């Protein structure tokens, strides 16, 4: 059991506090979650207001307790409601973009944002989980309070440029990949000159470009960019990988971290479908080779995770 430190009286929270330290907020306004003219104790993670005799708690999402954290996981949209002001850690991943059809680029990953020590008030906070985009379409934005992660850009079709998004979609034949959003993702890869499409961008790396060789050449379809790992769910898991681009008479691009691999076309009897992005990972969908029956694969839905120390 930690010893309670000598009380500190000041209008700003002490810097570098130790667990068990007590602080009286002399300010006329709330500071670090402690009400005006009230006392807080540092619990090792944040200042806990002692004035109302209750610990920070919240409702909303799928709730689990792992180690010293209570975790609220939102697989679909909902409401996060704290019982009082405090600070939380968050992970917000947008929906992945859909892969392109007709020599299509891979879908871009949904935007990836995470931080600790985010201040929340005792009010209902909207949580939106972005849907994955369909063929050639952008993913939906994911939102927690004031934090928005942009949906991934759709992969391009028919020699078009990839769409911009959290991470950009891959370009089709000879065209550029879409741009990513700063601090959320990366650009998609450009389409090659031989119908090999670019891979979608991921949160940690850009998609690679499609190859410029002919049949059975390597590289062919561009690979999706890598995602980013987080342990906020209670286990380490990677999110927001880009989708692979379609290959023409050669292999489709690979994908990791929730993205889907790209398809390829080697004649009427040798059509290989791409793969959709994984649900609640925010990955881009794989690109495909035609506009009907073999449309680009859908991106994966996003996710919002909020946690706090207990």
Question: How is this structure best described in words?
Answer:
It is a single chain. This protein is an all-beta fold and 310 residues long. The chain has two domains: 8-49, no CATH class; 56-310, no CATH class. A five-stranded antiparallel sheet has the order 5-8-11-12-13, with no helix packed on it. Strands 6-7-19-9-10 form a five-stranded antiparallel sheet, with no helix packed on it. The protein has a four-stranded mixed sheet with strand order 1-2-3-4, with no helix packed on it. The model has no long low-confidence stretch (mean pLDDT 90). 0% of the residues lie in helices and 25% in strands. The chain has strands spanning 8-10, 22-25, 38-42, 47-49, 58-59, 62-66, 69-74, 78-82, 86-93, 112-120, 125-128, 142-144, 147-149, 228-230, 237-239, 247-248, 264-265, 271-272, 303-309. The protein has no helices and 19 strands.
Quick synopsis:
The chain has 310 residues and is mainly β. Helix content is 0%, strand content 25%.
Number of strands: 19
Shape from CA axes? Answer: elongated
Oligomer: single chain
Low-confidence runs (pLDDT<50, min 5 residues)?
none
Number of domain units: 2
Q: Tell me the distance between the termini.
A: 16 Å
Mean pLDDT comes to 90
Topology:
Elements: E1 8-10, E2 22-25, E3 38-42, E4 47-49, E5 58-59, E6 62-66, E7 69-74, E8 78-82, E9 86-93, E10 112-120, E11 125-128, E12 142-144, E13 147-149, E14 228-230, E15 237-239, E16 247-248, E17 264-265, E18 271-272, E19 303-309
Parallel strand pairs: 1-2, 16-17
Antiparallel strand pairs: 2-3, 3-4, 5-8, 6-7, 7-19, 8-11, 9-10, 9-19, 11-12, 12-13, 14-15, 17-18
């Amino acid at each position: 059991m930690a010893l309670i430190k000598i009380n500190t009286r000041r209008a700003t929270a002490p810097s570098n506090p130790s667990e068990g330290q007590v602080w009286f907020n002399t300010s006329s306004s709330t500071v670090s979650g402690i009400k005006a003219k009230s006392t807080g104790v540092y619990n090792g993670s944040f200042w806990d207001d002692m004035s109302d005799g209750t610990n920070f708690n919240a409702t909303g999402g799928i709730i689990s307790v792992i180690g010293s954290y209570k975790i609220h996981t939102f697989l679909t949209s909902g409401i996060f409601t704290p019982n009082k002001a405090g600070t939380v850690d968050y992970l917000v991943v947008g929906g992945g973009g859909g892969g392109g059809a007709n020599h299509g680029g891979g879908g871009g990953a949904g935007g990836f944002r995470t931080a600790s020590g985010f201040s929340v008030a005792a009010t209902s906070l909207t949580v939106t989980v972005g849907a994955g985009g369909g063929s050639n379409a952008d993913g939906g934005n994911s939102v927690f309070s004031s934090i928005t992660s942009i949906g991934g850009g759709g992969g391009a079709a028919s020699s078009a440029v990839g769409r911009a998004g959290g991470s950009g979609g891959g370009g089709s034949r000879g065209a550029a990949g879409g741009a990513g959003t700063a601090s959320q993702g990366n650009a998609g890869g450009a389409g090659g000159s031989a119908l090999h499409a670019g891979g979608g961008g991921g949160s940690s790396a850009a998609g690679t470009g499609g190859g410029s060789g002919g049949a059975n050449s390597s590289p062919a379809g561009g690979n999706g960019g890598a995602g980013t790992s987080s342990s906020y769910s209670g286990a380490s898991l990677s999110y927001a990988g880009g989708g692979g681009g379609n290959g023409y008479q050669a292999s489709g691009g690979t994908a990791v971290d929730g993205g889907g691999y790209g398809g390829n076309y080697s004649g009427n009897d040798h059509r290989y479908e791409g793969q959709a992005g994984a649900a609640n990972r925010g990955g881009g969908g794989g690109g495909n080779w035609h506009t009907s029956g073999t449309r680009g694969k859908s991106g994966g839905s996003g996710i919002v995770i909020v946690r706090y120390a207990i």
